[in-house]
Amino acid sequence: MRFTIRPVSALDAEALWAIYAPYTLTPLTYEYPAPGLEEFARRIARVSDIYPYLVCEADGLPVGYAYAHRYRERASYDWDAELSIYLSPSAQGRGIGRALYTALFSLLRVQGFVNVYGCVAAPNPPSEHLHAAMGMELVFTDRRTAWKLGEWRDLAYYKLRLSEPEGAPDPIRPFPQLPGELVRGLCGAAAELIRSD
Q1: How far apart are CA 57 and CA 77, in angstroms?
Q2: 37-51 pLDDT, tens digit each
Q3: Total structural domains within the chain
Q4: CATH of the domain at 32
């Protein structure tokens, strides 16, 4: 099986929606009901105007995706990003999550981001393990903050400092402005971390 990681395209919306929608029926995301396909496609377009939105393919078929998006609305947070990642059940356990995050972190550093945050619906041992394995620190857990599927649920906040800026930071470089060769190189190197057996 051959794995690749690449930036999202508008043609991916339906395949990625099919990966995401079942999660809305579980406690692993606090969104419900699932967004419609058109709304999901709008989200992809809106996010990828500034942030990396990456797709992992196995033999040409999407099996997972990860992206960064705005952490908070005020301009002072422009150098922070929040992460999201979703994998097909059949794709889990191969290191795809680690590979997608490795590519995301590399691209976000090039863009000039300083901090990344992962907000994990807890308990979710695979996701909690992934964030810790990527060097992200558990900052705090917001207890009983979300109501879903008949229970109050927790949200765990993870954080990683990507760089240590000195003085005023440069403006963030939007993802579409990064050189294609650089993006392909970082995505390709990350894809090599995936176990293909």
Answers
A1: 32
A2: 999 999 999 999 999
A3: 1
A4: 3.40.630.30
